[in-house]
Amino acid sequence: MRKENPTRYSSAVGEAWQHAMFKVKYCHPIFDCKEVREEANRLFDKASQRYQIPIEGKGFNSNHVHMKIDIENYSRPEVAKRLKGYVARKLFQKFPWLKKQKFWGSGLWNPVIT
User: Fold this and answer.
1) What is the DSSP letter of 25?
2) pTM for the predicted model, two decimal places
3) Which residues span the domain enclosing 77?
């Protein structure tokens, strides 16, 4: 994927597209629920705009999401922290039953970055 006008940084020019998979903690199949999946999809788009992290090709399975992310000059853990944190916080605000029933007050995502 080459851009005609690539992103320019102080010491580099270009893009760094990475495949990311964010897995739900305890492997709960929360994305089988259409409302949760659609809201998570919308929230990933909002997080992408908010943090200016381009995302392409999101795909949801029952307990994880795949996507391509242009990490630019960020580290992989920093990108994951921003996207996963925003989505989890907003998802739990919209669906408080999710946190209580499935995650017993803990976080949404498995901490491992793949």
Assistant:
1) G
2) 0.86
3) 17-102
Classify each residue of 57-92 as buried b or exposed e, where b means 16 or more C-beta atoms within 10 Å of its C-beta: ebebeebbbebebbbbebeeeebbebbbebbbebbb
Question: Nearest to residue 63, comparing CAs of 98, 97, 23?
Answer: 23
Residue 3 lies inside a defined structural domain of this protein: no
**Does residue 59 form part of some domain?**
yes
- CATH code at 56? 3.30.70.1290
Residues 22-58: tens digit of each pLDDT = 999 999 999 999 999 999 999 999 999 999 999 999 9
The total number of structural domains in the chain stands at 1
Residue 4 included in any domain: no
Rounded to 10 degrees, the C-alpha dihedral 12/15/17/22 comes to: 70
Q: What does the pLDDT look like over 80-101, one tens digit per residue?
A: 999 999 999 999 999 999 998 8
Tens digit of each residue's pLDDT (9 = 90 or more) over 65-80: 999 999 888 889 999 9
